[in-house]
Every structure is written in C-alpha cells, then in structure tokens.
Design a protein that fits this description.
The complex is a heterodimer.
Chain A lengths: L1 H19 L5 H17 L13 H25 L9 H13 L5 H17 L4 H15 L10 H24 L41 H4 L24
Chain B lengths: L15 H12 L3 H23 L2 H18 L8 H23 L17 H18 L4 H12 L4 H8 L3 H24 L1
Helix pairs in contact in B: 1-2, 2-3, 2-4, 2-6, 3-4, 5-8, 6-8, 7-8
The chains are: A mainly alpha, B mainly alpha.
C-alpha cells in the first residue's frame, strides 16, 4: 500500500527532492562558515570539571550507585542487627549493643539483662549454644553492678530469673555434651563452691562482646564475701556493702 | 590542541575514524575539525532546512544558526559515528526550523525566489519548480513529525533503519508514520489539483 502511494507520488517527491537538494549559494555558505568560526573563537574555553564532579551522563549513574550503596549498607546492618554469635555479621550486633550502652539516659542494667536474655534465647534455639551462654554470662556479670540498691526492684527479680535460666541451660548443655567439667569452656558457670553466684569470673581467654563494658568490679569481687544472701542470690545487701559508683 | 594533520587538505570524511577524529578535534575547539564537519554536513543541513522551510534565504539563515549552535553544544555529542553525527546536526536543525516558524508565524512559501543552480532545460525546470512548490505547500499541512520523516526519507535518502535509529523509533513505527504521511500528502495534492 505504501509502495502504491510512493509510486503515485514519485514524480512529486522527486521534484521536491531535486529542489531541496540544490546547492546552497556560495556566499551563504561562506557566511555560515565564518559565523561558525567566529562562534568557535568566542566560545568559552573548555574548563576542567571540578574534582569529584560527574559528567551529566554519569550523574544518574552516580546517584543510583549511591542509593544502591545506602540500601546495601542498610541491608547488611539489618541482617547484622541480631546476628547470632559466631556469624560474620556478629560484629554489627556487638557494635549496636555497645552504642546502645553508651547512649545517654539508658538503663544499663536493663540493657545488659536484655542482651543476656537474647543470648539465652539463642542458646535455647541451639544457635551456637556454648558461645551464647558465655555471652549471657558476660551480660549478667555486667548487669550485676548496675542493678539498683533496692533489691525489691523489678530488675532484681528479672536478674534472678535470668541467672536461674542460665544455670539451667548450662547444666543442660553439660548434660548434652556429657562433660563432667561444669564450666569448661563456659565462663562463669556456678561451681559447687559458689552455687548460684554470678561471680564465677569470666575466663580471660574468651573474648565476649560485653568485655570491657562494665567498669566496676565483677560480682565475685564484691558480692561474694559480704553481699551474698543465703539463698545464693548474689550482690549487695544494701547495708554495709559498698557498691561501685555507677 | 593540534589537529590531526591527516584531516587537512579538503578531503571528504570517507573513513569512520576520520569523522571520529574530526568530532574529537571539534570538541577540543579545533577549527580544522569544525571545517571538516562543516564540509561534510552543511549540504544535508541545508537540504533539510530548505525542504522544511520552503524558503531559500530562511534555509540559509537557519543553516548558519545550526552550525553556530553546534559549536556551543558539541561537547554533549558522545556517539561519533556518521549516522549519529548527522542525526545530531539534523536534530539541531529541526529545532531551529521550529523556532523559525514560531518567530515568523508564516508557513507560506516564498519558495525558490532565485533560479536553480543547474538549469538543464527550461521546460523541465519549470515543471520541477511547479511540482516542488505544490509539494511544499502540501507539506505545510502535515504535522511536524510527518514532515521530518518525509524529509529524511525522500530528501536525505535515509534508510528506514537509519531513520528509526536516529529518531528513537522502531522500523515498524517509522514505516507506519511514513505511510500516514504519504497518504496525507496525497490527499492534499489531490485536493489542490482538483481545485
């Protein structure tokens, strides 16, 4: 159909083409060339782009790359937010916990207990249980000096419950592994000499995420001799037992 | 910057590398590079402008404006292959043509006030001039896009593939648009002949 129309119009189109393809007049061509060269001589010299400034065609690419980087970083951070111990992203979780503890106005005891409970939950879920229990122990040790002097406070009962859970989990773990040594590889596991005390001092050869968070003495250092209660609960009695300044 | 000596001497831009070097030189502000581009593309730009404007003087003015504008914007040209460079000049030309129409508000032809340069036979000249003037007037009733397609296809002899690639359309779309443009042109010509 198009060919038919083309054929019908061929003479007209050819006439139009011939007229349009005529040579431009020489003086007009020379004038156009001169105008072009004048424009060239008056054109601004080529400036180097400032450092780090992208060419326009790459500006979108740069924005996309930046957005992708932010999204990727956010994804990694989200994945590492509650990464289990032993995973590659655990450092993100440790960093997050350290930052949380350093924020002003936070309740350090509550935070340490929260971290300990998270580690206990992971141990129950069989996520690297040995390390999880060690982390829980470290967190409880760190929480201890931060607990309020009032032993009727809710944090105390929470602490005691966590301590009991930890002891039970440690026993279960030992039973599972058939290991006769109660605290081998698990720092802070209560021994027969100090039943239920939180102060089985963490071993130095295991580095836990909470290491170094608590500036005060370990519970065994100041709660064992004079502050321990008869039922095995640790800590200050509030009467005559010095507490570290928080 | 010193322009590549191989480009001097008024040779045509036959080789792809030669054109690429000319564009590169022009982008650096080299006059010889610009002269090469002018020699190569001035006829096409002029033909496009003349086919669209139907006014020789206006076409010459627009052609001049195209090359002045090109001097200021050549750094945006990335593809240095011939179809892309030609399309770039024609793109500028198309916009200059539209600017011209907007500024002058006139679409009536003052076409071919001067005689054609080549005059083989007076009767042929007369017939050709008459018919081309009729086509030019009919073209004025087509849309800008239809005129653009017809100029590229029938004045500049661009292939369907070239038109498609340089206008960002599919070959099928170009075919379809060309068909509609020719159909419209035929209707207008039939009507003017009947009148």
């Amino acid at each position: 159909m198009t060919d038919d129309i083309e054929a019908r119009l061929s003479a007209s189109l050819e006439a139009w083409r011939t007229a349009s393809r005529r040579q431009p007049r020489s003086h007009a061509t020379a004038r156009a060339r001169d105008a072009m060269l004048v424009a060239l001589s008056s054109a601004a010299p080529i400036k180097r782009r400032p450092f780090m400034m992208l060419r326009p065609r790459f500006a979108h690419s740069g924005a996309i790359a930046a957005a992708a980087t932010v999204i990727a970083a956010a994804g990694v951070a989200a994945a590492g937010w509650n990464a289990p111990p032993g995973s590659a992203l655990f450092v993100i979780r440790a960093t997050r916990q350290s930052v949380q503890l350093k924020l002003p106005g936070t309740n350090d005891a509550a935070l340490h207990l929260q971290f300990a409970e998270q580690s206990l939950a992971e141990a129950r879920d069989h996520i690297n249980p040995v390390q999880s229990l060690a982390d829980a122990r470290d967190e409880l040790n760190a929480a201890f000096p931060e607990l309020p002097a009032d032993r009727t406070a809710a944090l105390w009962s929470r602490y005691q419950a966590d301590e009991a859970t930890l002891t039970r989990e440690e026993s279960d773990l030992e039973g599972d592994e058939g290991s006769p040594q109660p605290s081998a590889g698990v720092p802070g596991v209560p021994t027969e000499d100090t039943p239920g005390r939180p102060g089985s001092s963490p071993s130095d050869d295991i580095e836990s995420p909470s290491a170094g968070r608590s500036a005060g003495p370990s519970p065994s250092q100041w709660g064992g001799d004079s502050g321990g209660s008869d039922d095995g609960t640790p800590g200050p009695t509030g009467s005559g037992t010095p507490r570290p300044d928080n | 910057m010193i322009f590549d000596e191989s480009l001097r001497g008024g040779e045509t831009l036959a080789e792809p590398n030669r054109l690429s070097h000319a564009v590169e030189a022009a982008q650096r502000g080299d006059a010889h590079g610009w002269s090469e581009l002018f020699d190569r593309f001035h006829p096409d730009v002029h033909a496009y402008a003349l086919a669209r404007l139907r006014d020789l003087t206006a076409a010459e003015d627009v052609t001049q404006e195209v090359f002045v504008a090109a001097v200021h914007s050549i750094r945006s040209l990335r593809d240095r292959r011939e179809p892309a460079v030609q399309a770039w000049f024609l793109h500028i030309c198309r916009h200059k043509v539209m600017d011209h129409f907007r500024q002058n508000k006139r679409r009536e032809a003052t076409y071919f006030a001067s005689p054609p340069a080549v005059q083989p036979d007076p009767s042929t000249i007369a017939e050709t001039a008459l018919e081309s003037a009729r086509v030019s007037r009919a073209m004025a009733e087509l849309t800008d896009e239809q005129q653009d397609i017809l100029v590229r296809r029938f004045v500049l002899d661009q292939s369907l593939d070239d038109v498609a690639s340089t206008t960002g359309r599919s070959v099928g779309a170009v075919k379809s648009m060309q068909h509609r443009a020719l159909e419209s042109l035929r209707r207008v010509l039939d009507r003017t002949r009947a009148a």
